Amino acid sequence: MVTDLDENIIEIEGFSFAIGTKQILKDVSLTIRSREYVSIIGPNGAGKTTLLKCIDKIYSGGTGTIKIKGRPVENYSQLELAKIVSYVPQADGRQFPFTVHEFVMMGRYPHLSPFSSIRQEDEDAVNASLSKTGIEEFADRHLWTLSSGERQKVFIAAALAQEAAVLLLDEPTTFLDYKHQAEIQNLLRRINLQSGKTIVSVTHDINCAALASDRILAIKEGSIVFRGKPKEVMRGDVLEKIYDKKFLFTKHPQTGLDIVVPEEVEA
């Protein structure tokens, strides 16, 4: 749970970003506190993934400021930034010719020198990450032998091995079956609460965002159009403004929170 003592770890002020002549982000301002779980929702093409990539300096440039721990992101080298921020991209179906252990060890890259051997502390970090994500049994298996849900846990384990304070995740449950969606959501919340990691997750699952997050941001056409607590976003007028459609709701039987239910399919 976020407290008043948690510092701002990400601060963005008046940030705009374009690719060629296309304006992707427009005057975005936000703060994210250490140990906070923030979900970013919004329509396809709204700029959500672009925002994550700008925070992690995968995309450079733009106007305005992005600060990580009070320091402008452009003043970090990529290795320096990787010790604070890790990024788990959206699954794209690519196959990697590595074992799980080898792939998770690659997450140690900010801490490794190209001229030094792997240290015991690196092995310890990898083993701890495998344990936290529940994939120790897969350590010697190749990634291509795993299911999509199992591979997603491997990608998260690699991010944990990086030992960064912030995890940026781009649609972490896309293409997963219901069981693995639930497992990944529960895993991320445990990482947030038990390990104190800041989670910033782009998602299209409004219900999961509301149930897991401390706070929700909505981006539409490159601008932030909502920021607030989960109970504040789960309203018809709010979601209609974000998605340009009406929503149906019911009460969650365990939490009492309003959640979205599907509409009747028209013949």
Q: What order do the SSEs take from the amino end to the carboxyl end, as H and E?
A: EEEHEEHEHHHEHEHEEHHEE
CATH superfamily of the largest domain: P-loop containing nucleotide triphosphate hydrolases
Low-confidence stretches: none
Q: How are strands sequenced across the largest beta sheet?
A: 6-7-8-3-9-10
Main beta sheet strand tally, sense and closure:
6 strands, mixed
CATH fold-level name of the largest domain = Rossmann fold
Structural domains: how many = 2
Estimated share of beta-strand residues: 25-35%
Give a brief rundown of this model.
The protein is an alpha/beta fold.
How would you sum up this structure, described in words?
With 267 residues, the chain is α/β, with parallel strands linked by helices. The chain has 2 domains: 1-83 and 192-267, P-loop containing nucleotide triphosphate hydrolases (Rossmann fold); 85-163, no CATH class. It contains 9 helices and 12 strands. The protein has helices at residues 48-55, 78-82, 100-106, 120-132, 148-161, 178-195, 206-212, 230-233, 236-243, and strands at 8-19, 22-33, 37-41, 63-68, 71-72, 85-88, 166-170, 198-202, 215-220, 223-228, 248-251, 258-261. Strand 4 and strand 5 (71-72) form a beta hairpin. Helix 4 crosses helix 5. The longest helix is centred in the C-terminal third of the chain and has 18 residues, at 178-195. It is globular, with a radius of gyration of 19 Å. The model has no long low-confidence stretch (mean pLDDT 93).
